User: What shape does this take?
Amino acid sequence: MSRINTNVTSLIGQRVLQNNTLSLSGSLERLSTGLRINRGKDDPAGLIASEALRSEAKGINQAISNAERADQVASIAEGGLQEISGLLTELQGLVTNTANTAGLSDSEKRANQLQVDSILQTIDRVANATSFQGLRLLNGSFDYSTNSVSTNSIASFAVNGAKLNFGATRAVNALVTQSAQVGQLLLSLGNSTLQLGGTNGTFVFQISGNKGSRELSFSSGTSVANIIATINTFKDVTGVSATASGTTGIRASSVDFGRAGFVAIKVVTPSSVGGSGIYQYNATNANTANTGSAVAFSAAINGVRDAGQDLGATINGITATTQGKVARINTDFLDVQIELTTGAAQTLAAQINAFTISGGGADFQLAGNVDIGGKVSIGIGNVAVRELGRQTVSGAVESLASLAAGRKLNVVDGNIAGAQTVVSSSIAAVSQLRGRLGAFQKNTVGATIRSLGVSFENTTAAESVIRDADFATETAGLTRSQILVQSATQILQLANSQPQAVLSLLRGG
Assistant: This one.
């Protein structure tokens, strides 16, 4: 072929050289960046998957940082609560010390009151000063807001955790499936006074409850009212109270509801006691004695016992764990505790609209996806003295603030027994809050950090497989492309010189 206007061989060489040059440029780019995918045209599907994994890894990494921040917040709150717990323990000692009235002078009592006042002021100061970046942690800022509380049915309640969507509320409803009961026995004496058959003997029986027991002795002619008054004298010691049942009977009941509360009566000297004996009450009607359960006093030397019954309930459709009149559920979305009034706790199938949670709580985002499933919420209540230890003392609700000088539970001339009840309740409340925070740190935050760490590793590894360059493969490709470029260049040079052979024809002519 001796045409020179079109050098087809050169065109082929140029095309091949251009392709090899592009391949070489790609290998150089991948080796210089370390990435197999540098732009969409490198691998469109791989780019989409890689960007999705990269975004997910970024979210997971930030969730780990959020969890670490949550742990720091909980640690600061725990530090404040630990100091308050120590102060409450000191307060318990002062109350007990001041109760030793015969061994203390008035000046010592007033000195103890000064310490009490100082402790109360310090507790308030710690509650207001414990903060994280200006956010107060123990003054109720992270407590839940509630409304529409059913005061006729709810004696008390606590919201420990609740997940809420932005601007949403959550209604808390309870349904009683089993009534709460106290342990109770009926002593039927058959007369308004104790009849011992004309003898000069005594009627001795031991009455026991979940707090202790006492042996009581009564002579013939003692009235039912006096026996009841004697039993009630030891109510705080035994955990058993007594009321009249008609004119000839005594109802002995445990102070506490539920299986923890019981009453047991053991007759020590059963001789010639009149009356029908000891009865239990009907399981389905707590106000009616079971006539088939009578135990004669002479046969009660081994004792008769009756235990209470815990409440059965569901809260928002979830079976609650119960004790006495208290029901609680603890789920990922709702952690609440409700104490029902006696009437509500004994009304079966009663739907109770307990209260509505309208907001509040400390929210932490512990997952890469921002949704309610990845959020964790915990309530931190107010531990100021006006809120701690709320208990009914002598018919009025008192708090830790009532131990201050001049208040009803002060240690100089106040109700010392009531003061100890309030302090004990405060210690229990602070301990429970510390326990919840500790469980949050250990089982929620700690486990989340560990699981997110594994997820971050796996997600990053998956993204690396798709996007990162394999240097062994790329260096081999680079060597191949370099050789091909050099070869194509040489061939193109030969192709371009081939038309010069036509000149020999011209010279020959």
